[in-house]
# Entry
Amino acid sequence: MEWRRKHVLGLADFSTEEMEFVVDTARSMEEVLTRDIKKVPALRGKTVINLFFESSTRTRTSFEIAGKRLSADVVNFSSAASSVSKGETLLDTAKNIDAMKPSIIVLRHPASGAAHFLSRHVSCSVINAGDGSNEHPTQGLLDLYAILKVKKKVKGLKISIIGDILHSRVVRSNLHSLGRMGANLYLCGPSTLVPKEMSRGGVTVTNDIREAVRDADVVMMLRIQLERQKTAYFPSLREYSRKYGLNTEVFSLAKKDAVIMHPGPINRGVELSDELADSSQSIILNQVETGVAIRMALLYLLAGGYGASH
# Structure
């Protein structure tokens, strides 16, 4: 297929063919990452700006490495050390950056819809690196790819996502990526953190972690996002961990070859025990590795693929 997108704002309007195309492109990018010299000149002369209004380690570093592996000039912009701290708006910041003629802006912002807003006001491509509780499309794609690498398929797998569903942008992207690829999705957490409306479209919602984990092929744990919570959704972290933390006893209900995932950062001892986080069935670090290939693929398709054909 021919890549037709200028922006990657969310997976809600991605077709299965587009997601498969990104994964196929990421496979070729992974070959680059196995070389002694992990660099190709695909985006030489292009500029990628990481515009992050929230703290991030994995995603920002992953995009930075991805850009540099493709020989792009990568600029990291932190709102704390910029004119944003003096009251400059997102729009003014973006227009100033756009005037410098970057090829791609990678945006993370606490407001849902920020990436869509930005895309309407700049001439370059925009990649959504997480907007509020809306979407995190590159995480949804890398999770899809990480599962495909281990399980060789997604269709028919029982994939359980457990934790703070309400505030998770990762879940909303995974509903599109994994759901559209035919996974049997289970969402689990306290009733205060699992919106009932998510039970549509073949998704099973439960408040029982044992039901979610039983016979699961993939168990994805989410951290409690205390920074987004404006009220108390459960009595205490200790109580939450007791009822919704994944330990060896609960995980023994999953299939023998089940794998554990987590978008990070992990709150060890809260949603996931040390023993499981570091076990051979954990593919958490594989997710991080896969993330670089997926982000290389998207940077290439937007600045190389899209730019070359338009």
Summary: The first strand starts at residue 47 and ends at 52. The chain is about 40% helix and 15% strand. The longest helix spans residues 284-309. The domain at 139-144+152-282 is CATH 3.40.50.1370 (Rossmann fold).
